[in-house]
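Example with several molecule types.
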Amino acid sequence: MSIQLTVNKKKMSLDIDPNTPLLWALRDHMSLKGTKFGCGIAQCGACTVWVNGEATRSCVLPISAVANADITTIEGLSDHGDHPVQVAWDELDVPQCGYCQAGQIMTAASLLKKKPNPSKTEIVDGMSGNICRCGTYHRIQEAVKLASELASKKKTKSTVKKSA
Amino acid sequence: MKSTRRSFIQKAALFSGAFCLGFDWFQANGKEVSMVQTTMDSGRFNAFLAIDPSGKIILYSPNPEIGQGIKTAFPVVVAEELDVDWKDVEVRQANLDTQNFERQLTGGSGALKHSWERLRKAGATARKMFVQAAAQTWNVDASTCKTSKGFVLGPKGQKASYGSLVAIASKLPVPTEVTYKNRKDYQIIGKRTKGVDNKNVVTGKSVFGLDIDKPGMLIAQIIRPPFGATLKSFDAADALKMPGIIDVVSFKNKVAIVGKSTWEVMKARGTVSCKYNPGDLESDSTHQKWFDEGMKTDKATVQRKDGDFAAALARSAKVVEATYECPFISHSPMEPMNFFADVRADGTVLLAGPTQVPQSAQKAVASLLKIDEKKVEVELSKMGGGFGRRLNNDFALDAAELSSIIKKPVKVMWTREDDMGGGIYRPAARYHFKAGLDASGNMIAFYLRGVGINAGNATRQDNFPVGAIENVLVESVNQVSAVSTGPWRAPITNFLGYAEQAFLDEVAEAGGKDPVQMRLDWLARAKSNPVGKITYEPDRFIEVIKQAAEKSNWKKKLGVHQGFSVYFSHLSYVAQVADARIVDGKAKITHVTAVTDCGEVVNLSGAENQIKGAIIDGMGHAMFAKLRFNEGVASPTNFNGYRLIKGNEIPTINAYFVDNGIEPTGLGEPALPPTGGSIANALYAATKKRLYKQPFEV
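Resulting structure tokens for the full complex:
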């Protein structure tokens, strides 16, 4: 029986074992390899994607549980790699090895959707579920702050545009 | 800044219209760097630097990138001396190419030290050839021409891009002498350069080892035996009936489940049962017994002896003694081990994946399959961390052996449990120190015995304060184990640095000395009248210590308990002051000041990343990491039991660099060894409790 879902705005139909974790469905069956395998037990956050807009660990989530859901992965976060979080990550030169960063970015972008102007504590707490073995935590936290500033500037700009 | 000693045999060549320069590594002798024409096959350049007539500048970065930033730092040096605008440069990862590159590996924080001169020469030589080409075209003296951002500028306002000069420049003889830029004119070196892979990383486009996909590729996972055990039998009857499973095969006490997709392999693996012949299986108690025996044995290897330690200890007014111990730990890079191999019927092999030592992978696989090394091609992928784990090519050998058995291309992937339970750990070690102090509290005798399990020489016998102390004895004992070990970021010193720096804090306290002044006094002695051979430069040590004391307001902060440490490793010097505060009745590390002398800082952004990352790494592992052993099996094997430091557990860090313009030295590791010491000493200052074991119990 095939499972229908929307991934990065594209409708997909998959005929695979319904217990297949979303992570492996994305990587092995949809060629979306930006989402990473780190632990397989939802502990490290490398596999974070959005399910219906909520940051979710995809490594333990069976594909059957996301039938008809709307999935966003790092590849679909923005059309041109210009989401404020992506821009801030590059600007502050966050990545070292880079492996955990897709999960960090999806977590950060989700955090900012809920709290467009997070406090320092909200950033630290919101991001501390994602492990970075290289220890890029300082820049991750600074980049979330920068992304929130970039997003609010963008918003102001588009508001001005509209009113004009 | 003239380069005179080097003999450039060189030729530059015009290949498909592009100007390519490469090094003749095999004729390189120390700093004698030759340059020769580079090889090229079917349109792909294996050169270090290529500029085509359109002006496109491609710099090939040969060393494996594991997050240390080498893929950005190497081209920065070439681009600086070539005198081009960084935004015009395209950086590409070179695959293993033993004809054109030397030391194409990541380990020992040695890449920049090794290649600094070579990289500068590559850039400066090409720049000089473009200047000569322009001078010839304009019929002017080359000395009247300058370069700027990829253009040659003539005396009368002439201007020509490097691209427009490619055809002429590539036919010129390669100059034997080049002049390097004065560091005050640097446009890129020392500035903040963003990682060249950032854009791909933030959009999910980077291809790590696990992301490799090749035509016809199968997926495999391998069940490995407990350490010390051998495989007796396995039952894979159920697995073989499961969808997507191609085969289950056994080699070298391992059982490999091969299938079409990751999940199908994972599921089938759960149904495979293995029986083992136990052999001598080790547990924590075994290792404790070996430590005890190693401390007692009279068969230790003497690593260094200055003066007469025993006699000096006997006449000491005070003796300080302490024992430190660290467990085995896992490297746990975020990307678990994996590798692709295709052992083909025609006798050629393609290897692809994350390894810090691609040439070793090539050699090891050639030797395993009894074929010529030239038949083994190695593609480098981006790596999700390494920390030394990918120096051991066990994963590449497994993939190659499996591919040779099933006769198909296969990617072997390790689960986190395979990775953490599968060996090549940081060796466990126990250290015993003794210090004899005279009536004024000065250390006159110093003793260290290091007992390591599969650690080789667990000491670093020439480490400071050796060289400043009259009577020294350093001994090591190695206990051989079935548990596999290997280098872990800053091998040996990742723990020994902590033990030494924590012990010296005890020595300072017992002698009534300030830990900073005590070290400065010793260094003055090592400088004026060293005891035996010294491997460090006292002046560079002194400078980082003084700057760290000043920048941290050493012992002048109210309500803050500070701990000091300083370490020389991989030819770089790092001094640290950790600040601890009592928060909710508990001691907490809130800030670390680090002053580093790694010579010239090539990329300030990358350098800061390495310092902060190494401190967080050192702190996290000192505080939390431990593997236990029970009958040859390690635990825990995932992040729910094996705790890595998280973003809400880190101190603020200020990283400073000594600005001295000395040739650059390593930066991937040197900030880690002093970290355990600075934080342990700060926690002692806060709690009056010494920490003798990692992980700390605070």
